[in-house]
Amino acid sequence: MSGVIAVGLVDLLVNDLFSVRAGIWGAALTAFSPFLIWYSRDATDYSWLIAVSLGSFYLLVRSLKKGGSLNWALYCIVTFVALFSHYYAVFLFIAEIAFFIIISKHRKQIRPWLICQAILLLALFPWVLLLSSSKSYSSEQYLNYTTPSITSVFSGIGTAPIVFVRGYVGLIGSGSSALFLTSSQGLILAVFALVVLALLFLPSIKRSLLNREYLAFTTLTFLLIALPVVSILSQGGYVAGRYYAFAAPFFILWLAIFITAVPRRVGFVFGGLLVLLLLFFYLIELRGTPRENWKDLMNTMAAEGRSGDQFLCFPLHHCVMAQDYYTGADLQVRGGVVVKTDRVRMDHSEFVWNGYKTSFDGN
Description:
This protein is mainly alpha-helical. The chain has two domains: about 1-290, no CATH class; about 295-355, no CATH class. About 65% of the residues lie in helices and about 5% in strands. Strand 2 and strand 3 form a beta hairpin. Helix 1 (about 1-15) packs parallel to helix 4 (about 45-65), helix 2 (about 20-30) packs parallel to helix 14 (about 265-290) and helix 15 (about 295-305) crosses helix 16 (about 315-325).
């Protein structure tokens, strides 16, 4: 359901911000995106995060375009929901601030926006205070802050366009969780960069670059990808697609804007080929990429579990979501998060289990 809502929001959003034709292309590309379909089918909260993030941005655009206390109130409410749906939604909050600063044209827009930001910051303050004081999350065993290299940042950001278009086909890089910029992916990214550079020489694209809406939206999209990448790399973690999953529809909309900026016939051919490419990768992923069979797993746990059994799982939230979604088991779920490939940390505890081995090859 969240994925269907996301397609509708994409259409409404681009209609308000750019044009009807861009909205149609954006909705089509979103509907056929193997990456977004993956999360729509997955028993996690990322599909919901994608939908509420789009809803937040749509209401921000609507508030800027039409004003009104109701629109600003709805924007505050939906953004509040997004922030408390996943802690990485704070990057959406930051990116929307940058978007507003670039696109805002009237002083009358500043006052309601500042009121909304103040309300959201006050709502976040107790959560930030609790998080910073929690030994479980502030432990140096869990958060190993480092300065990421330029190469690793480029690799993480550069993988995003590939995974957004290609999805998890072929278990990208070393697996579906760890995404690294391999030589084949570098070739794909190079072709993508050349296409973008070629488009920049078209007069219609040059005019678009001078458009304030285009600049603001490009900045927002870049920040939604770059901020999670820098954050996870600074913690010594792996850059996985789920960390910037909520940026996927915004990147797809960016492609739709390019399609409508070029001459109509060229855009139709380019957009049509892109839709076919998305469909091709989705069919490959559907046939060949292994997926977690959460439904059968939960049914097995319910059938074979005994009173007092505990379900140990890493990462914990995947199993909690799967149990709640399929309701096939009623076991106590314990676990935590994967810190590194050979280390996991129990949730709400400083206990770290060294020697734990994870596989990034799909097995």
